[in-house]
Each structure stands twice: as C-alpha cells, then as structure tokens.
C-alpha cells in the first residue's frame, strides 16, 4: 500500500515511516497517487481536497474527532475512513485539569504583573472547589478520565450526556441531570462531547445567559461547541474561560476577538500532545491501516 502522512510534526516524525509531509492536504497543490493518507485536524477533507488524490482508498485521521472530514465526500469516492479511538484519553483530561487549576489560582493571569516587577497577591483572589458544582458535558472516554481526576477536588459532580453510563456514575459518584438543570447548577463546566450537528453551539448565547455569574468553562473538545461571537460578548460574566480549541483555528491571528478578553486562557489545541501520546498516535495509525487491510472495522467511522 502506497502511504503518505500529512501534518507531521518533528515529534511524531520518528515514529512514522512512508512518505511524510509537514503541511496539510489543502496546502498540497499536486495530484498524488497514494492509496492511503493519514492526517490531523488541520487537514480539511472535502470534495475539493480529495481531487488531488485520485487513487485514494483509505484515510486515517490521527485524531479522535472527525469533524474536519466531509464523510459524504469520502463515501461518494468509496474511501474508507478510520479514526484513532483512544491514544490516551487521560492526556486530554490532564490538560483540562491544568487549564482549570491554572485559572482558579491565577497562575497565567498574574504573570504580566510579575513581569512588570509587581510581587503582590492583592489582585489575585483565587477560586476554591469548596461548595462548587462541577458539570461535565459528555461522559465518554475523556469525560470519565476528567471525572476520575476532578473527583479528588470536587464535592459535587453532575453530568449531561445523551447516553447515560449509570455504572460509571455509581463507581465515580456523580449524577446525570437534564440539560437545563446542568446549565443552571454548574459552577465549573468541562466540555468533552464531540462536535456534531446536534452539539454545534450547544453552548450558545441563551445558554450562557442561564449560566451562573462567575462560572467557569473549560473546553478541550472542539471549538464549535461554543458560539464564539456570543462568548466574546458575554465573557465578563464568567470568572474565566480555559480553551484549548477554537471554532476557527485555521484562521487564528493576533486579531482574534478572544484575545481582547482578559479572563481567557488559550492553548493552541495541544491537549493531545504529550510525550506519551505521540508514540501511541503513530502506533494506532498503523493499527488502523492493518485493520483496513484485514477488513476489521475497529476504528472505522464510515461504512462504504
Ligand atoms: N483537544 C484535544 O487535543 C483533543 C484530543 C482528543 C479528543 N478531543 C475531543 O474530545 C472529544 C471527546 O472525545 P472522547 O474520546 O471522550 O469521545 P467519546 O466518544 O468517548 O465520548 C463522547 C461522549 O459525548 C457524548 N455525546 C454525544 N453527543 C452528545 C450530545 N448531543 N450531548 C451530550 N453528550 C453527547 C457521547 O454520548 C459520549 O459519551 C472528541 O470528539 C474530540 O473532539 C480533543
């Protein structure tokens, strides 16, 4: 099988064989005769980008999320699509926790003052978990890893998911509630649902209005779950926002409106990216390719 990997950074490079490109598929302007390509979320797969791969049979996205791929376009061309189901969910959960603790204890926010020579606690009242309700949106692999970790800090954990994992709720001592109640009771929200038609802008302007003043949102899932324009308008009602993902990551620039909000901690979609995960991602990419060759549907998201 003729294989190429796109969006390859220097950390994963040594674990991948075959042809390697450090750029995304839309930056490729040539017709390339590969049977299989692996990509990351920076590569947008649609009818236009697929035109340059006339021989393609298999796409492996080295991601859990698949919202950067037009599955109908793949189906039309008879291309199979595999994603990596899990390369270490705990890595993303740990990053969500890092964003949360960094914000609650002002670790990022106080840096600017220190760099101006001011060594004073007075502007930096922290936030304690005591008495706060942690709300987890999406209790799949990453959501549950997050709950296992936040359990050490939090008194009360509630969750909202279209699929309720009652065993996990019992084992990890949290309770499922309806969406309205979830929104109204949550002090600290961590988002772990995938981006689908149903979840796009699930946190919209009306939902933000119903959330508690001084509440917190952490999003390590996909930017499109939150209506960014509304978030910018309502940012001041939140204690702070910790975002690893944005709606428009590809067009990020110094003029991004969220950079005008003083209470936002942004990271550049790095939650997945650890010394542990890069090796797992590379291994799992080859597992997907092997599964395809063996007609094994593990990891397949589209049946063609
Ligand atoms: N920031 C990063 O680096 C990074 C890395 C990996 C994954 N992610 C994101 O995290 C997401 C979650 O990953 P996962 O492995 O936990 O996925 P998962 O499939 O194990 O869990 C997702 C959960 O969301 C729930 N869900 C689906 N639709 C919902 C809805 N409408 N309302 C509420 N809940 C809903 C599902 O029932 C499921 O329990 C991925 O889809 C991906 O977008 C981000």
| Radius of gyration based on Cα positions | 21 Å
Ends distance: 19 Å
- The CATH topology of the largest domain, please? Rossmann fold
**pLDDT < 50 runs, ≥5 residues:** none
Note the beta-strand portion: 15-25%
Ligand inventory reads: nicotinamide-adenine-dinucleotide
Q: Name the overall outline.
A: globular
Structural class: alpha/beta
- Major sheet: arrangement of strands: 8-7-6-9-10-11-12
The count of β-strands is 13
The CATH architecture category of the largest domain equals: 3-Layer(aba) Sandwich
| Major β-sheet profile | 7 strands, parallel
Q: Count the helices. How many?
A: 11
* Helix proportion: 25-40%
Tell me the name of the CATH class of the largest domain. Answer: Alpha Beta
Describe the structure.
- With 304 residues, the chain is of the alpha/beta class.
- The chain has two domains: 3-87 and 274-302, Rossmann fold; 89-266, Rossmann fold (3-Layer(aba) Sandwich).
- It is built from eleven helices and 13 strands.
- It has helices at residues 10-13, 47-50, 71-76, 89-104, 111-115, 141-150, 166-172, 179-185, 205-210, 228-234, 275-293, and strands at residues 3-5, 19-20, 36-39, 58-61, 80-83, 133-137, 156-160, 175-176, 188-191, 216-219, 240-243, 264-266, 300-302.
- Strands 8-7-6-9-10-11-12 form a seven-stranded parallel β-sheet, with helices on both faces.
- Helix 4 crosses helix 6.
- The longest helix has 19 residues, at 275-293.
- The radius of gyration is 21 Å and the shape is globular.
- The chain starts with a strand and ends with a strand.
- The site of nicotinamide-adenine-dinucleotide has 30 residues, from helix 4 and helix 6.
């Amino acid at each position: 099988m003729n294989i190429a990997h796109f969006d390859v950074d220097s950390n994963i490079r040594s674990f991948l064989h075959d042809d390697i490109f450090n750029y995304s598929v839309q930056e490729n302007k040539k017709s390339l005769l590969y049977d299989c390509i692996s990509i990351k979320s920076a590569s947008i797969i649609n009818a236009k980008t697929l035109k340059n791969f006339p021989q393609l049979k298999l796409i492996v996205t080295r991601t859990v999320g698949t919202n950067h791929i037009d599955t109908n376009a793949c189906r039309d061309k008879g291309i199979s699509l595999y994603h990596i189901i899990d390369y270490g969910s705990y890595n993303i959960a740990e990053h969500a926790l890092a964003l949360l603790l960094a914000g609650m204890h002002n670790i990022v926010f106080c840096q600017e003052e220190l760099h101006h020579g001011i060594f004073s606690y007075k502007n930096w009242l922290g936030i304690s978990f005591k008495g706060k309700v942690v709300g987890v949106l999406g209790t799949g692999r990453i959501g549950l890893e997050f709950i296992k970790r936040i359990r050490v800090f939090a008194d009360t954990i509630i969750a909202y998911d279209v699929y309720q994992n009652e065993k996990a709720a019992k084992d990890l001592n949290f309770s499922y509630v309806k969406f309205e109640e979830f929104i109204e009771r949550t002090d600290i929200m961590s988002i772990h649902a995938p981006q689908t038609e149903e979840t796009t802008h699930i946190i919209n302007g009306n939902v933000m209005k119903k959330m508690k003043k001084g509440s917190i949102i952490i999003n390590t899932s996909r930017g499109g779950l939150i209506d960014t324009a509304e978030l910018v308008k309502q940012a001041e009602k939140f204690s702070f926002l910790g975002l690893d993902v944005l709606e428009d990551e590809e067009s990020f620039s110094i003029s991004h409106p969220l950079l005008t909000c003083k209470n936002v901690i942004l990271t550049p979609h790095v939650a997945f990216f650890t010394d542990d995960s890069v090796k797992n991602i590379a291994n799992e990419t080859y597992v997907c390719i092997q599964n395809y060759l063996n007609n094994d549907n593990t990891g397949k998201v589209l049946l063609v």
